[in-house]
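Open question from group meeting: does this chain pack into something compact, or does most of it stay loose? Before anyone orders reagents, we agreed to write out a predicted structure and look at it together. Recording both the input and the output here so the notebook holds the full record.
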Amino acid sequence: MNWGFLLLRILILLGVFSLLFFSQRFWYVTLWRFTANWGSRLLRVSVRLLYITALFLVILATADGFRMGHGHIIPRGTMITVLAGLWFSSALFAYLAVKVVRGIERLWHWLHRANQAKARAASANSPSDSSAPYAALETLADPSRRYFFRTASIAAGAAPFLGAMYGFAAERLNYQVRRVEIPIPNLPDPLDGLKIVQLSDIHLSGYMPRSQVRRAVDMANDLGADLAVVTGDFITGAGDPIADCIDEVRRLQAPLGIWGCNGNHEIYAKAEYTAQVLFRERGMKLLRGENAQLTFRGAQFNLIGVDYQRERAPGGRRVQLLSGTQSLVRRDMPNILLSHNPNSFNRAAELGIELSLAGHTHGGQVQVEILDHRLSPARFITDYIAGQYQRPLFAPALDYRAWQGSPKRVDLRLTDFDATHGRAVLYVNRGLGTVGAPVRLGVPPEITLLTLRRA
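Structure tokens returned:
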């Protein structure tokens, strides 16, 4: 067993639970202080009891939601589970935002006192002009400063709650079509222009009703793709109706058929085989460590699909991704890999797979831009958050870093390698559904139309 990895996981979990505990304690204390001066004791006690009851239900719904099996105490998708996800996420970020503002205020206090001390020292050395600098600094401590920081704290605390409501009510349902051209080295001329529509991370559940999946499928059908693929996570847990999801997926229209692979949530729900059977019964194909040769305009390409690729064994030991996939790769035609986990891209490129299609990240679900840098929670699990990435074909999986898009300047070693072997491409779909908090901010749900182009 890898004890270092186990210790790291324990520390991360303790850190997360500590943050959740302190954020809830902060709002609990805030409510107590806010209601302390209310004249009516009955109103004060009623509001506090209501808060405690609601918090207990939220904690129960959240803990119950972590269970992927059957027999949930509170069914997914009910109002209490929606509110639980919204409350915990927004309360945590609001708590952190308020603490940042208060930290800035304390720093301001410290600098102000330091400047006061300097002013007093200067006035002691210059008795003839002892009052001017000190009086100027005293004006910094007027009530307007306190009012500014009080207002900033209120705004910082309210922003995450307002953002969560917007992300739940609006952006979560704002499906967008992304049209992307994918450069493939040595692509046969007949395959130039092949169109692939990709859906991913549907997560059919109480948060994602069947009607919304139907809407996404209708939007995908309007794109006129030649091939349709779904890269995993049809559901979230064992209690979710996977048959309903796959019935909607069956409505996709593409001359080359509908193909898919399993995601990690099929594994959690122990539904990998069920998904495979349902695909077969509905005239589709779920690839589980398999490949198929498809023909378009007289030219062939090799479609490969794998179940979700775990990066560590149960004991914490790292495992090689795409183990056993090498025998499925063809050298006489282009290869396209369906792999839910984008972290398999390095190994796929090493094996000579020209195009990998993935999901899993949801684009982080929430993305903010600070000082021209996009910050996303998905950064904690992968370098491949969303969109198109490239790296050299056949380059060792542990060497080189992939880059996003088409860089203007590339390391010379990469350029030399490219000249001989070309580049592998990964596209990470931002997904349709959500996990945890039913919120999207800065990362709207995505339906992707990929067009292959000869590099």
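Observations to bring back to the group:
The mean pLDDT is 84.
Residues 79-125 form the longest helix (47 residues).
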